[in-house]
Amino acid sequence: MARVVVIGAGMGGLSAAARLGALRHEVTVCEQAPVVGGKLGRFERDGFAFDTGPSLLTLPAVYRDTFFKTGAPLEDVLDLVPVDPAFHYRFADGTEVDVPNASRSGVRAALDSALGNGAGGDWEAFLDVAHRIWQATRGPFLESPLERGDLVRLSRRVGDLRTIAPWRSLRGLGRRHLRDPRLRMLLDRYATYTGSDPRRAPAALAVVPYVEQAFGAWYVPGGLRRLGDALHERALATGAAVRTGADVAEVLVEGGRVAGVRLADGERVPADVVVANADASHLYADLLRGPEARRELRRLRRATPSLSGFVLLLALRGRTPGLAHHTVLFPERYDAEFDAVFGGHPADDPTVYVSAPDDPALRPDDEHEAWFVLVNAPRHEPGAGTDWDSPGLADAYADRVLALMAERGLDVRDRVLWREVRTPADLERETRSPGGSIYGTSSNGPRAAFLRPANRSPVPGLFLVGGSAHPGGGLPLVGLSAAIVAELVGKA
């Protein structure tokens, strides 16, 4: 049995704590914020409630495995309900399409009806390619630790190398298989799931739409935040101690391996193992001293940081007929958005994403709605890019987003009771994610996966979980990172 300190009570940290607690390790979680959950946040006011992080769960098998291996099954703790349609898309030319949940035949029919020109067949053929990529990457990479030399190992598996095609971008894969430009735009959006640019992100990201459509899009009544609460309770049930307001200031190293952590108030918490659910850049720049940290930081700086997000939480009077759970409003020129965001500037005409669950638990009564509105945004970088704390910028951009929604058929400006604006600067303050990057580093470039920090750090006894570490961001991959680390700790 080892003494384990987990830095951060995000989904990766809580998953790791529950798994390690179930393996009878002595686990203490130190979270700097007053609440747990990390980016899986929640905001409540006047009877309205909003998830401020993910709005759907894909690949629920990851969390089913977590709960099964730590106690009662997930379905004994939470209800999971399918989101159908999974998404409603509106394009600049006025075309609209509802994409059914977990139905290849339904998706094919919907795309053929809305886009014509054999669009459904093209998408189905693309999914066949994505399935082969999933088969090639799932076990060896997504469910396994990424170690030095794995790029060489991949290159020796010629069949898998041809399938994954690391030299091809997601945009290039779309052009190869999808004739309709609107269908390619739909595919491009999945690059933003990892904070990336589809023109530079690898074709391997085709697994994202494949997983969503093969295993379904799911929601937890009451909000996705309830998944985080359930995971917190599970960690406690396994014996883990979860301390909020416990700000870790340093990872302690003695005799060449970790010895615990020092909190901001000076308290030392001894440990044989430290699991960092902090952003990897924050870990290696601020919490860890020594040459190993400097080397890892140099590697991280060779990667492109992920994009961030600009959020509006809207409390609305009245109801919207026919409103889907998820609505995506595309611009006319998607590339202009990526040029702006990765160039460090807010896009003038961004894609607008609306999450509006028809969930009575999120509104004061049936005469109101709670909307979470998100647009891709550049990181908070005062002096080098966008300073989101500049006076008036956030409110002006919020007005711009509402105006764009109106232009694209969702005008709610006269229904707004109040709005809460959240910028990348706010995300940085709340989660210690540098610049408010949602996923640490992006997947831009063919070597991006190998620049992402490994789960086993160069310092013995120090491990990384969460969206900034291997295998990446998003609820499923964060859960997989915890499973990987739990196994590594057992072998340490």
Describe this structure in words.
Residues 11-483 form the Amine oxidase domain. Pathway: Carotenoid biosynthesis. The structure is a single chain. The protein has three domains: 3-39 and 222-303 and 452-491, FAD/NAD(P)-binding domain; 102-213, no CATH class; 308-434, no CATH class. It has 17 helices and 20 strands. The protein has helices at residues 11-22, 61-68, 104-115, 119-142, 150-156, 158-164, 170-177, 181-188, 207-215, 225-237, 280-287, 291-301, 334-342, 393-407, 424-431, 448-451, 475-491, and strands spanning 3-7, 26-31, 42-45, 48-51, 57-58, 81-82, 87-90, 96-99, 217-219, 241-244, 248-254, 257-263, 268-270, 273-276, 308-317, 326-329, 352-355, 368-377, 416-422, 462-464. The radius of gyration is 22 Å and the shape is globular. The mean pLDDT is 93.
What is the helical fraction, as a range of percent? Answer: 25-40%
CATH domain class name of the largest domain: Alpha Beta
Q: Cα distance, first to last residue? A: 11 Å
Strands, count: 20
The profile of the biggest β sheet is: 7 strands, mixed
What share of residues are in beta strands?
15-25%
What is the count of helical runs?
A: 17
Radius of gyration: 22 Å
CATH topology of the largest domain: FAD/NAD(P)-binding domain
Low-confidence stretches: none
Q: What is the CATH superfamily label of the largest domain?
A: FAD/NAD(P)-binding domain
Give the CATH architecture of the largest domain. 3-Layer(bba) Sandwich
Keywords: Carotenoid biosynthesis, Oxidoreductase
Family: Belongs to the carotenoid/retinoid oxidoreductase family.
Protein name: Phytoene desaturase
InterPro entries: Amino_oxidase, Carotenoid/retinoid_OxRdtase, FAD/NAD-bd_sf
